[in-house]
Write a structure and sequence with these properties.
Structural class: alpha+beta
Number of helices: 15
Number of strands: 15
Order of helices and strands: HHHHHHHHHEEHHEEHEEHEEHEEEHEEEE
Distance between the termini: 19 Å
Oligomer: single chain
Strand content: 5-15%
Helix content: 40-55%
Radius of gyration: 26 Å
Strand order of the largest sheet: 12-13-14-15
């Protein structure tokens, strides 16, 4: 067994030992364990940071040796790390950049992480807040912050790094603020109880002005006797002003809703409580889905698209085309079937409809040979050494296997639609080491 294999075996043994810690101990021992485990988390994070940075350097060298174009260098590296860590490629890319800074240019912070004196997130905050500085200035921040790390919380570390960075390079700090305005955006994410969070990242003056306008509208409504809470009024006013409707409930409804016929038409029956799936949100109660369909205002426009499933497994049925590009209907179908990027643990919004077996290699333009993907994952699999293929099965369940340049296999499955029986539900994405392929 090589040294690398021995180290991996040691790590797996540690995982097993931690899983089986004796539980008949005093509470004082539990507190000692909690402190030791927190220290161990930092030490493990430091090792993972080091391995990630070294993997990036090695992969870049291999890509250069393979003749990869300069503008495509680095493609797929963060995605491999993301699959190994079971996180999204976006998060992996962000943390890989910080890891490179941390290991090369923040020696005191990295040493504190290795010794368990600072958490991974606080170390990453310093890397994040100094990424725009020169190497010389970054080293200065690292040296000045080092004695304070153990006594500062997350906000304190972030504030100190910003303060020192501004003092070292005020012009660069201002330029960074201007660049940050280019990153303004709006996004949505699910919240509990069939709610969503609509968020916006805005320049400070615009954000404060928008919030002040909503506050003034709420104050005016309360003053004339509106019985809604101030938060409710602000939320309703936001919807009204964004959509142009007279009242928030009058927003036109265009719903991509996947619901079984039993849940829609026979709510009292055995299948009437099967959750529906709302595109862009996720599972919602069957009763709420029926309300969305049957209870809008009389003058509210509404569109409902019908999708059909196999009667035996409830999997969505397929469509096929002879064209090189997927039709609008096929792209819409794939988005409903896959719900989000099909790469394991990514869950980013679908931006591309992609051939699993490339078209130039004989892959058909069909629903079976298609998957929804984000831009990052679609580009990653175009890097050297990546392979994707459809896994055949008799249940109509769409499964895709991805093989990375290091020989690791990862399997993803389209989410089960409403009404899928237990026997149609597949196993979670699988990671296999190269020797198990």
């Amino acid at each position: 067994m090589s040294d690398v294999d021995a180290a991996t075996a040691l790590l797996r043994g540690l995982v097993a030992a931690l899983r089986d810690l004796p539980q008949r101990v005093e509470d004082s021992v539990r507190i000692d364990r909690i402190g030791a485990l927190e220290q161990l988390k930092s030490v493990v994070a430091a090792a993972q940071v080091r391995e990630s940075a070294a993997f990036s350097v090695s992969q870049l060298a291999e890509q250069r040796a393979a003749g990869v174009k300069s503008k495509e260098l680095g493609r797929g590296i963060a995605s491999q790390i993301a699959l190994a860590r079971r996180i999204s490629p976006h998060r992996a890319a962000r943390e890989l950049g910080w890891a490179s800074i941390l290991t090369r240019e923040l020696p005191h912070t990295y040493a504190a992480l290795q010794e368990g004196r600072v958490s991974e997130w606080r170390a990453m905050l310093i890397a994040r807040e100094t990424a725009w500085l020169s190497v010389e200035h970054r080293l200065s921040v690292d040296t000045e912050l080092a004695p304070k790390l153990e006594s500062l919380g997350d906000r304190g570390v972030e504030a100190e790094a910003k303060k020192i960075g501004y003092r070292l390079d005020p012009a660069g700090f201002v330029a960074r603020r201007a660049q940050a305005e280019n990153d303004r955006r709006v996004w949505i994410r699910p919240a509990p109880q069939t709610m969503v969070q609509l968020s916006a990242l805005l320049p400070v003056a615009q954000g404060v002005a928008a919030y002040a306008a909503l506050t003034r509208a709420a104050d005016t409504s309360v003053a004339v006797g509106d019985q809604r809470g101030r938060g409710q009024i602000m939320a309703d006013t936001l919807v009204q002003r964004l959509t142009g409707q007279a009242t928030a409930p009058d927003v036109p409804v265009s719903i991509n809703l996947v619901i079984t016929d039993r849940a829609l038409l026979d709510p009292a029956g055995a299948g009437g409580t099967e959750p529906a799936h709302l595109d862009g949100y996720g599972p919602i109660p069957a009763e709420h889905a029926r309300q969305l369909i049957t209870e809008p205002a009389d003058d509210t426009p509404m569109w409902i698209r019908r999708l059909f499933t196999r009667p035996d497994t409830s999997q969505l049925t397929a469509m096929e085309s002879r064209q090189r590009f997927f039709t609008a209907g096929q792209r819409h179908y794939i988005r409903i079937r896959d719900q989000h990027c099909r790469t394991s643990w990514c869950e980013a919004p679908i931006r591309h409809t992609d051939h699993i077996q490339p078209h130039q290699h004989g892959g058909p333009t069909s629903i079976t040979n298609a998957r929804g993907g984000c831009q990052t994952c679609n580009h990653a699999k175009q890097a050297p050494g990546w392979t994707t293929r459809v896994l055949e099965n008799d249940d109509g369940i769409h499964q895709v296997e991805t093989i990375t340049p290091t020989g690791h296999h990862y399997r993803s499955q389209a989410p089960d639609p409403p009404g899928a029986p237990p026997r149609a539900r597949g196993e979670p994405a699988d990671q296999s080491p190269p020797d198990a392929a």
